[in-house]
Amino acid sequence: MEHWWKEAVVYQIYTKSYYDTNGDGIGDLRGIIQKLDYINSLGASVIWLNPIYKSPDVDNGYDIADYQSIDERYGTLEDFKELLTQVHQRGMRLIMDMVLNHTSDEHRWFQESRSSKDNPYRDYYIWRPGKDGKEPNNWGNYFYEGRGSAWEYDEHTGEYYLHNYSRKMPDLNWDNADLRDAMCRMMRWWLDLGVDGFRMDAINRLVKPKGLPDSPNPLTPPVGIYGYVVDRTMCANRPGIHELLHELNEKVFSRYDIMVVGETGNVDAAIAIDYVKEEREEIDMVFHFEIAKNPVLVDAVKFKEVQRRWYHVVEQHGWITQYLSNHDTPRQVSRFGDDQKYRYESATMLATLMHTHPGTVYIYQGEEIGMTNVEFPSIEYYNEKYTVGKYYTMVESGRSPEEALASLRMMSRDNDRTPMQWNSGENGGFTTGSPWMHVNPNYVSINVAEEECAEKSVLRYYRKLTAMRRQYPIMVYGSYRQIMEEDPELIVYVREYQGDRWLIVCNFYDGIRELSGIVKAYPEMEKRELILCNYLSMENEQEIRPYEARIYCLRDRKI
Ligand code: GLC
Ligand code: CA
Fold first, then answer.
1. 368-387 tens-digit pLDDT
2. Which of 140, 360, 398, 428 has the smallest CB count inside 10 Å?
3. Pairing of β 513-514 and β 543-544
């Protein structure tokens, strides 16, 4: 079935790092309004905003203190409404990040909840008495915060509350019917304002395992010196989660023409089917972690294997996403490409892969100009809780500071959170004040202004791809079949749609390969016409250059 959100190119904005208009060093909503023409020129059709709600900001807004107000650092509700109006005026849409797994401990519900055992909000969160003078179970928090437990003792009532993330982010209890109603009302309030959907944070973790048992997972040894086990499978995909999502769909999502994309760690293609199969009426698509967030570097063979499995979901059941980076990952050109010698070539090759694979495309701010990872000299420069928590846990367990930092550098979530690089002026043009986070020093050469006029421009190549996606439905709806599945360097596949046929060739590495090998494997490509290539010229078609990407149209039809 056709849907606008299948055709969408989503542009993810981390407001805090996008564009600052009042000189306080923090990006804001008026900054996004000022950049809407830029975003529109990129060819994005949907904007996804990371959380902008009122928040004490221990996890950059994922700790929400009030779901129905805008954090004053980002602006006001009036600014938000103006942003939404201006987005719609340009024919684009806007989706919000919706965090339902936890709130901030400063949320009114939690303040009530912790005040007494018989407070009506007590049961909105997950409280347990201690066990033999210790925490209720062996779970460790995902941020490696403090001594590492996922439980925090609260003296006032003498019980522990669960927090899978920071102790400032208590987990909610979705068994509570009043909580469910309050959340549905809140989501409808945003949709009635006109927002076009949600990105649902950690959505497959809302339902906890019955009885909250210890983690038995032998593959996940205790971390740090206190023996807590960081086992993300404990709260993932538990019985009851599908009934809950179906309920949210019935009470909220299905009543609007919106898109809903879930963030789902610990989900592979087989598990995903139950979330996205249309008849099940839960959510539209999920973000899996198999490529972008895989701690092991994904090579060409693995990339193809993952894509084949996920394509099966599209073929038979529902819809999928394509992304290579977001605010929780490294920069894609640094992770999968070469951010030095072949920065332009590899950034554009990766973009080609994303835009020509089936699924909704997600571009993370800065990716479109080939922004790279950052090399901070010491831990003090790092902001985000996971890197900092893990660093101290490693040091406490006997690793040297250098070793700890070296092992965290590539995957640190701060790589993607440095401010957007607009020009070569001070602070990359992000702010006239002092930026909340250090700007990547390479802003002098990597920035939007430069990309607008450079001969080799990642930005202009992105614009071509998004324009083609609007023009050619084959890029969205075409069938997908790989050629040379086991080739360790080339990613080659055929898309077909209503009599059209395309062949896409991407060199995932910096070596040189011969086209003849592909022609041999796929003789139907004899009559081909090149429609896009990331290199500026083509002297010798036979030679596939480092990180080269080509899109061919195969003219084998009699017209
Ligand atoms: C998701 C967000 C991440 C956040 C976490 C807790 O994984 O993408 O940034 O830290 O949830 O809300
Ligand atoms: Ca600001």
1. 999 999 999 999 999 999 99
2. 398
3. antiparallel
